[in-house]
């Protein structure tokens, strides 16, 4: 009987011989992790046994490379995987941890629906707290803050984070708020922005998190960026990045010239409506952008030359300038979700 598939999807894996990071199709089984060069491959490129393995997350061995997890086998071999965004990493971590625990206890992996609740600081669930902080209605409001002739977009202040924790009665006092915020920072749920907060996080201050209105922080998937504002002649830079992120993840994209398919990390923003795509193996700057205002997006069952495609779950974006983009999702459900999200964004202003 074949092992049960628990989770599968695109992750970026560090090579075991060369220090290169490449996107792989990763499959979590009950007893191990298989990774494939392509989803359509019949045999895996490698397999990591989970029995006796340990999981480290967050893994901060690679500086600016975020959302990394590390699996160390019984033979002391380290395997590094990078997710596209924070919630995706945490979902993989939860399932891998549970799979390892089930192996140790001789149990079968089974999902249970559990209600998360935040009660006492000592039993707080940082993942659930992070989602509460990002809630559009009741969460912390992101701000555009100016300091030292720079504008920090989609930002939070240190004192604002503590205020929110106290006002929502998630901590009993500001000192407890500092402890929880420092944990959020160390686990990657918050990132420092600006010299003051960065210096504190690097250990220059007594506490890595500062209860200070001049200490700036941001959610890692908020669309944060900093822009210079040094003279009256400055134009508004990077307008397309101002929109709030409404969806992100990895998809296959067909090249316009060579027509080859490559895995790309996509970030969908609305108002203004843009779809940016990146090299998932690294790089802060996008490889390209699709302006979605007035676009048409539909599922397709054949390639653009009219031939029946061997690829599944294809969809097409046609921009207002009549540029065609062909993308492939991992599942039909994922394709439907992307199409609906892009349709909503395309109707927003700008």
UniProtKB/TrEMBL annotation:
User: What protein name applies here?
Assistant: Pleckstrin
GO biological process per UniProt: cortical actin cytoskeleton organization; hematopoietic progenitor cell differentiation; inositol phosphate metabolic process; integrin-mediated signaling pathway; intracellular signal transduction; negative regulation of inositol phosphate biosynthetic process; negative regulation of thrombin-activated receptor signaling pathway; phospholipase C-activating G protein-coupled receptor signaling pathway
The record ties this protein, via Pfam families, to: DEP (PF00610), PH (PF00169)
Which domain of life does this protein belong to?
Answer: Eukaryota
State the organism of origin.
Answer: Mus caroli
Keywords from UniProt, A to Z, are: Acetylation, Phosphoprotein, Repeat
Q: Which GO terms describe its cellular component?
A: cytoplasm; ruffle membrane
InterPro entries, per this entry? Answer: DEP_dom, PH-like_dom_sf, PH_domain, Pleckstrin, PLEK_DEP, WH-like_DNA-bd_sf, WH_DNA-bd_sf
- UniProt-listed PROSITE patterns: DEP, PH_DOMAIN
Write the lineage as a comma-separated list. Answer: Eukaryota, Metazoa, Chordata, Craniata, Vertebrata
């Amino acid at each position: 009987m074949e092992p049960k598939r628990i989770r599968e999807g695109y992750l970026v894996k560090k090579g075991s011989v060369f220090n290169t990071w490449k996107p792989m199709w990763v499959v979590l089984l009950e007893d191990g992790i298989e990774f494939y060069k392509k989803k359509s491959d019949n045999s895996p490129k490698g397999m990591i046994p989970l029995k006796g393995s340990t999981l480290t997350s967050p893994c901060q061995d690679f500086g600016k490379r975020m959302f990394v997890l590390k699996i160390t086998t019984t033979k002391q071999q380290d395997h590094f995987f990078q997710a596209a965004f924070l919630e995706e990493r945490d979902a993989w971590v939860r399932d891998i941890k549970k799979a390892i625990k089930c192996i140790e206890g001789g149990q079968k992996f089974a999902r249970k629906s559990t209600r998360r609740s935040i009660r006492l600081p000592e039993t707080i669930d940082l993942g659930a707290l992070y989602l509460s902080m990002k809630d559009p209605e009741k969460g912390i409001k992101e701000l555009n803050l100016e300091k030292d002739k720079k504008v920090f977009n989609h930002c939070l202040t240190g004192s604002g984070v503590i205020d929110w924790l106290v006002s929502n009665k998630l901590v009993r006092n500001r000192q407890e708020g500092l402890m929880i915020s420092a944990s959020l920072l160390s686990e990657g749920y918050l990132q420092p922005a600006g010299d003051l907060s960065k210096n504190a996080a690097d250990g220059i201050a007594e506490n890595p998190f500062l209860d200070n209105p001049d200490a700036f922080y941001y959610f890692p998937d908020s669309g944060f960026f900093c822009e210079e504002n040094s003279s009256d002649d400055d134009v508004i830079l990077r307008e397309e990045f101002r929109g709030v992120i409404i969806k992100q993840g990895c998809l296959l994209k067909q090249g316009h010239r060579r027509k080859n398919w490559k895995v790309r990390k996509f970030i969908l923003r609305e108002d203004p409506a843009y779809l940016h795509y990146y090299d998932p193996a690294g790089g802060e700057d996008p490889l390209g952008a699709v302006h979605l205002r007035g676009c048409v997006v539909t599922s397709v069952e054949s390639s653009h030359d009219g031939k029946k495609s061997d690829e599944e779950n294809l969809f097409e974006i046609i921009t207002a300038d009549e540029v065609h983009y062909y993308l492939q999702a991992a599942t039909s459900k994922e394709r439907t979700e992307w199409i609906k999200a892009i349709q909503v964004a395309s109707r927003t202003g700008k």
